[in-house]
Amino acid sequence: MLKKAADDRGISCRFVDIRGIAWPGGLDVSEGDVALCRCVSHGHNLAIAKLMESRGVRTVNHSSVMEACGDKVITASILDVAGIPQPEYRVAFSQEEAVNAAESLGYPVVFKPPVGSWGRLISKVNDKDCAESLVEHKSFMGPNHGTFFIQEYVEKPGYDVRALVVGGKPISAIKRASSHWITNTARGAEAQSIPLDDSLTDVLSSVYKAFGGDLLAVDLFQNGNSWSVNEVNGQAEFHGSVEGSGVDVAGAIISHCKSLMEGDK
Prior knowledge:
Layout: H1 2-8, E1 34-36, H2 42-53, E2 58-60, H3 63-70, H4 72-82, E3 89-92, H5 95-105, E4 109-112, E5 123-125, H6 128-139, E6 148-152, E7 159-166, E8 169-177, E9 190-193, H7 198-211, E10 215-223, E11 226-233, H8 239-245, H9 249-261
């Protein structure tokens, strides 16, 4: 989709799978270049962005935005500082305190790995017995699971909302509808268009102001005319947004990258 958008606009670009190269010799970049980082792996994306930035390359997104959006603990702290509504949460650093935190929120709660995507390894926990079992299992999954991010469970009306912000401008929003409590399109949710009204645009503008970033995907819960931000993604896929909204997301991204090449960096 990105290649077609570039070809349609006559924009020259190279597509490189970094799994086939080694830094620095395998990637020919120069100061002033713009690189759109689309690695599936968050770790790969962050590493290659930092390396290219050390050579004066303008990355999309900047590595600082990747870090902020790639870790749910950091994301929650930024939303707190900005005063942007989000589900109530707790962060714990031991099995015992993770269970206590879940108890303090009140069941059901949702355990999420601080770093992860596609709804993988998130768990809805309905009682203390389940919480105790889950945190014990997590404790054996390596250091990345030693920090426990626990969020209140939000009853949704069968959907959540995914909105995209490109270059600071909200460009599309979709409902992700599913009978399952996890509503990622990667997990089979149906994408349906939703208008970018004033209330939604206002909260998206607040998120952009707090995080910056060239491309943000914001996941939200709706309650009447009010919104709470569930997650902010800095390296989102967008096929579901295109299918649901009809917006040329790839074109918007490519055009934004071109504007950065032309000097708006």
